[in-house]
Automatic annotation (TrEMBL):
Protein name, entry field: Long-chain-fatty-acid--CoA ligase
GO-annotated molecular function: long-chain fatty acid-CoA ligase activity
NCBIfam families, alphabetized: PRK06187.1, PRK08162.1
Family designation: Belongs to the ATP-dependent AMP-binding enzyme family.
UniProtKB keywords: Fatty acid metabolism, Ligase, Lipid metabolism
Keyword RNA-binding belongs to the record: no
Domain AMP-binding enzyme C-terminal span(s) in chain numbering: 455-529
All copies of domain AMP-dependent synthetase/ligase, residue ranges: 26-405
EC number: 6.2.1.3
CDD domains recorded: ttLC_FACS_AEE21_like
InterPro entries registered for this protein in UniProt: AMP-bd_C, AMP-bd_C_sf, AMP-binding_CS, AMP-dep_synth/lig_dom, ANL_N_sf
Top-tier EC class: ligase
PANTHER family in alphabetical order: ACYL-ACTIVATING ENZYME, BUTANOATE--COA LIGASE AAE1-RELATED
Source organism per UniProt: Roseovarius phycicola
């Protein structure tokens, strides 16, 4: 050990140890890039100096309202500037940011409000009715609503609640940010679609988000003054942490409320967008767009895609249009992407078929992670890297969640053996590159949104004619996959496909309801367990 045995006087001090937090990126950007474009949305244009001031005013206004460090502030917002400001302003007052999926139904939103104990919620006028409905269903104290009008999109205030611009105008521009004393402090709370129906609250810490932003900038890469289009919802793993990363490189956030091919092409042509992240459904939208929706541009746009593995055919079709696509993979529990299909020059000369098959792989761990591999979940040992033996994707590293809020048992189970158990099955190639084969949890990923098959089954089982049902993923050209329900009816009772779909839609968010119903006797094991793998064969 030598002199390391005696480290007298070599302890952590304020001079040499500062807790890592993505908040540092915007504080620095306001100083280093004060006049650069920070956030752009139609005629809304803010520099980094202004972005920092608006986030500061938000932090101050929340504090004046009684929000204390450790309290939860929720959002029900599209990808608009106020949502980006909340990513800095909410933690800058020491609070925890809870971005809620805007596609959820009132009952689930009510559960999230209660479980996370939100004190305040920032709401787009479009989502005021479902928010009000959710608050009526709550068991605990209701959050205070702040309405965030979006005049750019013609979504004006309904006038019943304090409006965001007035609210932050009352904040102090000199408010001192509440920086974390410990980088393990909670930064964000994100609810994942669990297989048990009830979503689990995934808790992020400042350290994990900070390291993911640095790693993303290195590996994507995000050059100085990148111009990034927000297609990934800010409620999805906090926009895969990209909004937190941009100030680090003086990059511009170009907000996109409604994701259409026209909006994407206009942003590239008019705003010079260089980067975006998106689910494969968005790539398909671009590939299948009409000539009149497209615009000419003379640069290559870098794209990260995740949410479900993109077909090689999609990658082959989009690249000639001016997009350089890299597949990434991750989960809500890992702050977004933690693997990338990193390209090696040795593959450049491969035949086209082979090149796109490689590009369709899930990939290899990113630089801020420690180990991501496929293991036998029972023995926690590595499966052979032979391109065919399946194992569960196991993940270790600094961008793994703290755990599930108020659910120590689920947390312990997820971390058993010193790895995060992803629930995704994959095989590995000789070079360690993973390829997702199936999802162990029967999650259906539709347009990048997770749908719990068990939740959909639970809704259908409430119909008086349904004896048994099983929901599996059905391939869909537009959404990647959608729920298909196999239903066994009770003796002597009738029901139609339309009736059951309509029944489910009354109980579930639209995207979760089944798109097809097949009536048949369900295949079962000797113990009566439904064999979903048999049902999936219908789509093979």
């Amino acid at each position: 050990m030598g002199w390391m045995k005696d480290e007298t006087g070599l302890g952590k001090t304020a001079a040499n140890f500062v807790p890592m937090t993505p908040l540092s990126h915007l504080r620095r950007a306001a100083h280093v890039f004060p006049d650069n474009d920070a956030v752009v949305y139609g005629s809304f244009r803010k520099t980094f100096a202004e972005y920092y001031e608006r986030a500061t005013r938000l932090a101050s206004a929340l504090t004046k309202m009684g929000v204390e460090p450790g309290d939860v502030v929720a959002t029900l917002l599209p990808n608009i500037p106020a949502h980006a400001e909340a990513h800095f302003g909410v933690p800058a007052c020491g609070a925890v940011l809870n971005t809620i999926n805007t596609r959820l139904e009132a009952e689930t939103i009510a559960y999230i409000f209660d479980h996370g104990e939100a004190k305040v919620v920032l709401v787009d006028p479009q989502f005021i009715p479902v928010t009000a409905q959710a608050i009526e269903m709550m068991e605990g104290p209701a959050p205070t609503i702040i309405e965030v009008a979006d005049d750019q999109a013609g979504v004006h205030s309904i006038g019943e609640y304090p409006e965001y611009e007035d609210f932050i105008a009352g904040g102090d521009p000199d408010f001192a940010w509440v920086m974390p004393e410990d980088e393990w402090e909670s930064l964000a709370l994100n609810y994942t679609s669990g297989t048990t129906g009830r979503p689990k609250g995934v808790v992020y810490h400042h350290r994990g988000a900070y390291l993911l932003t640095l790693g993303t900038a290195i590996t994507w890469p995000l050059p100085r003054h990148a111009r990034y289009l927000t297609i990934v919802p800010l409620f999805h793993c906090n926009n895969w942490n990209h909004t937190w990363a941009l100030p680090m490189v003086g990059g511009t956030l170009v907000c996109c409320r409604d994701i259409t091919a026209t909006a994407i092409y206009n942003a590239i042509a008019d705003e010079g967008v260089t980067h975006f992240g998106a689910a494969p459904i968005v790539l398909n939208m671009i590939v299948n767009s009409k000539d009149e929706e497209r615009r000419d541009f003379d640069h290559t746009v870098s794209v990260f895609t995740a949410g479900a593995p993109p077909p090689a055919a999609t990658l082959r079709a989009i690249e000639p249009l001016g997009f350089d696509v890299t597949q990434v993979y991750g989960l809500t529990e890992t702050y977004g992407h933690v693997t990338e299909c990193m390209w090696h020059d040795k593959w450049n000369d491969q035949p086209e078929e082979e090149r796109y098959a490689i590009k369709a792989r899930t990939g290899i761990l990113m630089p801020f992670m420690e180990d991501i591999t496929a293991m036998d979940a029972e023995t926690m040992t590595q499966v052979p890297m032979d391109g065919e033996t399946q194992g569960e994707v196991m993940i270790r590293g600094n961008s793994v969640m703290k755990g599930y809020l108020k659910n120590p048992d689920a947390t312990a189970e997820a971390f058993e053996g010193g790895y995060f158990h992803s629930g995704d099955l994959a095989y590995q190639h000789e070079d360690g590159y993973l390829k997702i084969a199936d999802r162990a949890k029967d999650i259906i990923i539709s347009g990048g949104e997770n749908i719990s098959s068990i939740e959909v089954e639970g809704a259908l089982m409430k119909h008086p004619a349904v004896l048994l049902c099983a929901v599996v993923a059905m391939p869909d050209e537009k959404w990647g996959e959608v729920p298909c329900a196999f239903v066994e009816l009770k003796d002597g009772v009738e029901a139609t496909e339309e009736e059951l779909i309509g029944f489910a839609r009354e109980k579930l968010a639209g995207f979760k309801s089944p798109k097809k119903v097949v009536f048949q006797e369900l295949p079962k094991t000797s113990t009566g367990k439904i064999q979903k793998f048999e049902l999936r064969k219908a789509f093979k």
